[in-house]
């Protein structure tokens, strides 16, 4: 008997939903567009966040970074370090999802025949740290090798120095014991970076060349650790912190770049605010729709109650109508969102309308990224809060007096 009644209530809810095609279609369109807007903007913001995070982390600091404690206060070659604990090397070697990279970073002056510029010279292992990880692309010349004695410079720096591949330049820097070190080198390649500012300020060399230039054999200023799964970051940080010497400091990327971390937190908050704004706008229309639907069917509701339909069945009928409408809107909205994301799977080219993206760590092409968590949250918010919005009109309908309802003029 209960199953039969539930089936009857569901059928009535479905038929009542389409008695006013225009109103239902408009509301269905509003829900669909609301879901679409939630998912698309969330995907764009999430893509922006992931792009900024990936470029910032890969461009230098890594997920984790080890420095001499004094280096954080006075970043010069004197405060580098050379001995890596054997336990750390074994830990990294045993974890296939963990990559360790050594670098030597020192402030320098680069001079050509025409001009000079202050830059940061970064000595690294070109085999362990390829160009794509650094977020740069070679546009002229050749890549560095492990034994290279040349340098890679940015396109903008090459233009300012009026130099090119094969030309000789002079690098002046500070070596150990505050000795000024100077060496003439060849430009082996010119790169183009995702961040235009990097093209003017960063010069790359092999780690061996940088150590030779500064007379800092086997010395580095930082060790960067990259974690394949960032969800393991906290666990890896705890383990690595136990393995390094007391005079070394371990920091994660949020501590290295608090500006980026705060921006990520702000964007996460904006996603929640955006979903709330869209839903609030949609909920007014949803509540108004069902209040009008109940008002128009006052006599019908009274007649059904007079024929024996219980208030609980009336309440269930209105809630089922709401649920059916919400589910239809969610399905259509998700389909539209997936289609939109598919069409823009290669990214949105923003270079024509935004020339300053590189200043905040963004590339001119933005690829939307939709996580399962964001999609589920948007859908659940609409369905659950949508049902709550319809509780009041449903409750009013279930509390109607049958005689007064039948005699009312709709």
Summarize the structure.
Residues 24-242 form the MacB-like periplasmic core domain. The chain has 410 residues and is an alpha+beta fold. It has 2 domains: 2-56 and 261-407, no CATH class; 62-256, no CATH class.
Describe the overall structure.
With 410 residues, this protein is an alpha+beta fold. It folds into two domains: 2-56 and 261-407, no CATH class; 62-256, no CATH class. Helix content is 53%, strand content 19%. The protein contains 15 helices and twelve strands. Strand 2 (98-111) and strand 3 (116-124) form a beta hairpin.
Record the strand order, biggest sheet.
2-3-8-5-7-6
* Approximate strand percentage: 15-25%
Give the rounded overall mean pLDDT: 82
Tell me the structural class: alpha+beta
Low-confidence regions? none
Q: Largest sheet, described in full? A: 6 strands, mixed, barrel
Q: Report helical residue fraction.
A: 40-55%
Count, helices:
15
Succession of helices and strands:
HHEHEEHEEHEEHEHEHEHHHHEEHHH
